[in-house]
């Protein structure tokens, strides 16, 4: 489990197709404290550590994960949001995030509002019903509050801190971002279907 509070920004330093996609991510984490098999959310995707070095870790990514996320867009040098798995007793500063991406949203508009940036995204039709004003979503692993919803489109406001502490300062119109809907919204919708 994760919180959607980004704790590091990594860089894709190697990509190899070896049956599965193998990715090396250079990071600022003390890798001596990372166990083999540990889970690290990388742009919101819960990935398993399969190798470690002094300032990097490697993950193996299945074809299904590539198909359901934006990991197929990853290139050498790309910066990615990182979060290590939640430990018992850690502060839950965002919302409960599983790292199981539901789909990919597209950035369709951006404009500045004061020091902040308003970003409009388009969700896949099947996921749009789970997104509500003032509800939570995880986008590229970042816990965010939805401002408004218009059918499949929804707006997020990024304050300067978020643009610096995450990769959201790099985003441009047309980017595809990993979308994980709020777990509570998923269960509420399922209960409504059952009644």
TrEMBL record:
Lumazine-binding repeats: from-to residues: 1-95, 96-192
PROSITE patterns: LUMAZINE_BIND
Keywords tagged on the record: Repeat, Riboflavin biosynthesis, Transferase
Presence of keyword Repressor: no
Reaction equations catalysed: 2 6,7-dimethyl-8-(1-D-ribityl)lumazine + H(+) = 5-amino-6-(D-ribitylamino)uracil + riboflavin
Residues in Lumazine-binding domain copies: 1-95, 96-192
InterPro entries tied to this protein: ATP_synth_asu-like_sf (IPR023366), Lumazine-bd (IPR001783), Lumazine-bd_dom (IPR026017), Riboflavin_synthase-like_b-brl (IPR017938)
Metabolic or biological pathway, per its Swiss-Prot or TrEMBL entry: Cofactor biosynthesis; riboflavin biosynthesis; riboflavin from 2-hydroxy-3-oxobutyl phosphate and 5-amino-6-(D-ribitylamino)uracil: step 2/2
EC main group: transferase
EC number: 2.5.1.9
Presence of the UniProt keyword ATP-binding in the record: no
Highest taxon of source: Bacteria
GO biological process assignments: riboflavin biosynthetic process
GO molecular function: riboflavin synthase activity
Function per UniProt: Catalyzes the dismutation of two molecules of 6,7-dimethyl-8-ribityllumazine, resulting in the formation of riboflavin and 5-amino-6-(D-ribitylamino)uracil.
Binding partners and assembly: Homotrimer.
Name of the protein: Riboflavin synthase
């Amino acid at each position: 489990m994760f919180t959607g509070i980004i704790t590091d920004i990594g860089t894709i330093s190697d990509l190899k197709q070896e049956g599965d996609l193998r990715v090396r991510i250079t990071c600022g984490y003390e890798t001596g404290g990372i166990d083999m098999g540990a889970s690290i959310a990388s742009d919101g995707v819960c990935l398993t550590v399969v190798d470690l070095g002094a300032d990097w870790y490697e993950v193996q990514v299945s074809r299904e994960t590539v198909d359901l996320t934006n990991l197929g867009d990853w290139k050498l040098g790309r910066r990615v949001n990182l979060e290590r798995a939640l430990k018992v007793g850690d502060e839950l500063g965002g919302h409960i995030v599983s790292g199981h991406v539901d789909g990919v949203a597209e950035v369709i508009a951006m404009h500045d509002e004061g020091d902040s940036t308003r970003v409009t995204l388009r969700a896949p039709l099947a996921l749009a019903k789970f997104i509500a004003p003032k509800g939570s979503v995880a986008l590229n692993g970042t816990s965010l509050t939805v401002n408004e919803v218009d059918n499949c489109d929804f707006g997020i406001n990024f304050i300067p801190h978020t643009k610096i502490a995450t990769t959201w300062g790099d985003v441009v119109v047309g980017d595809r971002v990993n979308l994980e809907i709020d777990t509570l919204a998923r269960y509420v919708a399922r209960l409504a279907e059952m009644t």
